[in-house]
Specification:
Elements: H1 3-19, H2 24-41, H3 51-61, H4 68-87, H5 114-122, H6 129-144, H7 148-152, E1 159-160, E2 165-169, E3 175-179, H8 182-199, H9 226-240, H10 248-261, H11 266-273, H12 278-299
Antiparallel strand pairs: 1-2, 2-3
Helix pairs in contact: 1-2, 2-4, 6-8, 6-10, 10-12, 11-12
Length: 305
Amino acid sequence: MDEREKQYIEEFKTYLSVEKNFSEHTLSAYCSDIVSYILWLNGESCTSVNFEKLREYLHFIQRFQYKKTTIARKTASIRTFYKFLFREKYIDVNPALSLSAPKRPKPLPKFLTPDEVEQILNNVKIDTPAGFRNRVILELLWATGMRVSELSNLNFGDINLEENEIRVFGKGAKERIVLMSDRAKNYLEQYINSVRNLIVAQGYQTPDKSENAPLFINNTGFRLQNKTIRKVINDTVEKIELPKKVTPHVFRHSFATKLIENGADLRVVQELLGHAGISNTQIYTHVSMKHMKDVYETAHPHGGN
């Protein structure tokens, strides 16, 4: 590596740190990627290569059986490096402009079986007002597939008990209607009629039930925050020693997976989840297929052969 290229790397490092605000870890990885790339060029100037040369390098590193995520990062490093060189006028044409990284594999969402959900629900203590509220919250997460932020933001005006409907404002304030089961509705009615006012500690004002009043409140009468809901789930799961990491979003995944497994139309599930595109919903068909294969291999006499 000549002095000129060492200078490029030092300036590139400053660019990543100051202008791109990269973490130390990412900055180190990007610079290491570029050093490896320049060494591979074996004396050929990094400012004189063309697109074909870059593709040759990507083909070369794939021999080492890196993970797709590593290949994607190395590709991003090169794209960013040449964007920097072009911006600083060290090159007249950016050869990496059309360089594409392999798609990162989307991990399948984790989900709970209905029995596991029931185990969690039945272990929420409902002998206190706050405990009963927590049971209602988990019932609704399971019954509706709402995001935890959507549930936290519910107001009285969003509830239509007569029709088992809840109006939800999702990402980008996009409005949709979700449906609740009769069981979830019965818990919610009890909470609204008998329990909600008991949650507020002595000395705080009784919460109102106007259309814009928060549905779920803490002991000071203010809106219940996301972190409290997460803590409820964490504490319950820890107590029953369920061998899975369970978050509010896992309830959402479990809701969607169960609908798909029971033959629900993909478009209906998309609408209930508030997904902008069907591609986001289709991942649940993969979850169901994996679950189906797991069941087959366990239950069928020759399934594991």
